[in-house]
């Protein structure tokens, strides 16, 4: 299977002078097309920093990151541009990532419009692609279990937290990116609605079988449902990695055992 993104020997420091702290140490990772990789670990272990580096939103101090075989370093690099155009991000707080003055349809269509403008489309051109965009937006909403006839014209304040997160997922997948990163997508969602988010990701994986999905989560139940492979981080290092069943059923590292024991309490 094609490797969509990979990093080698990534190190990252934050802060200056006496406050300078290393938060990632010699991290290697890769994600293949069609795979779901979960990154788990306690708060502050470096999960979000690693995904931000993977998305080109943060720079590593040393090491390399590649997207589809091209280096991501530097905003002018071909790898960075390809990554920006071919990745989707789902964050913890769905309402913070939706413009309250925009309808669901407009929010979900935004990546398509941006891509068209970046590709040199005129505003008139953008108007003309609206019909195509509407079809893609409705397909994305359907795939996350939201009926476009009901939800397309709603505003964020007319959505529950779970519905808003599914809108955010629809926006992340609407232009069929090769890589989707979801950073704690369930933690701001009430327990009853979490299953809908899991279903939305499962449906996305079915409709876009070649997309690579990276999920950062504290919730091992979520991880168990979604992930093919798990990477465990502790204090900025990868301490265990393997197939989901193997890591969850027979963890090798004491730290992973502790995480699993804490989750089943
Ligand atoms: N911009 C920043 N400036 C300084 N320190 C930072 C910055 N971003 C993150 N850190 C620090 O880097 C470390 C790793 O943070 P990170 O957010 O990657 O961890 P995490 O595993 O995702 O945690 P959580 O599960 O709580 O989101 C933490 O100690 C954090 O305080």
Automatic annotation (TrEMBL):
Ranges for domain ABC transporter: 5-260
GO biological process: transmembrane transport
Enzyme class: hydrolase
Signal peptide: none
InterPro entries from the UniProt entry: AAA+_ATPase (IPR003593), ABC_transp_ATP-bind (IPR050319), ABC_transporter-like_ATP-bd (IPR003439), ABC_transporter-like_CS (IPR017871), P-loop_NTPase (IPR027417)
Keywords: ATP-binding, Hydrolase, Nucleotide-binding, Transport
EC number: 3.6.3.24
One Gene Ontology term of the molecular function aspect: ATP hydrolysis activity
Listed PANTHER family: TRANSPORT ATP-BINDING PROTEIN (PTHR43776)
Protein name: Peptide ABC transporter, ATP-binding protein
Source organism: Bifidobacterium tsurumiense
């Amino acid at each position: 299977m094609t490797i969509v993104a990979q990093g080698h020997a990534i190190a990252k420091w934050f802060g200056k002078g006496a406050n300078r702290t290393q938060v990632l140490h010699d991290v290697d990772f890769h994600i293949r097309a069609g795979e779901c990789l979960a990154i788990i670990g306690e708060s502050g272990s470096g999960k979000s920093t690693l995904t931000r580096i993977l998305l080109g939103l943060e720079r590593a101090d040393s090491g390399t990151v590649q997207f589809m075989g091209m280096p991501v370093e530097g905003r002018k690099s071909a790898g960075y541009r390809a990554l920006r155009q071919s990745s989707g991000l789902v964050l913890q707080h769905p309402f913070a990532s939706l413009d309250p003055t925009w309808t669901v349809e407009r929010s979900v269509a935004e990546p398509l419009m941006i891509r068209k403008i970046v590709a040199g489309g005129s505003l008139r051109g953008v108007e003309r692609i609206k019909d195509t965009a509407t079809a893609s937006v409705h397909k994305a909403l359907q795939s996350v279990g939201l009926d476009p006839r009901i939800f397309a014209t709603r505003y964020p304040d007319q959505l529950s937290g779970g519905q808003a997160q599914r809108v955010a997922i629809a926006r992340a997948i609407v232009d069929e990116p090769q890589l989707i990163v979801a950073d704690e997508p369930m933690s701001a969602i009430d327990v009853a609605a979490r299953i809908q988010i899991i279903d939305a990701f499962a449906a996305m994986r079915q409709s876009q079988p070649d997309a690579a999905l990276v999920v950062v989560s504290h919730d091992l139940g979520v991880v168990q449902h979604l992930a093919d492979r798990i990477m465990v981080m502790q204090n900025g290092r990868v301490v265990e990695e393997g197939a989901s069943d193997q890591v969850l059923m027979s963890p090798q590292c004491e730290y992973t055992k502790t995480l699993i024991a804490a989750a089943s309490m």
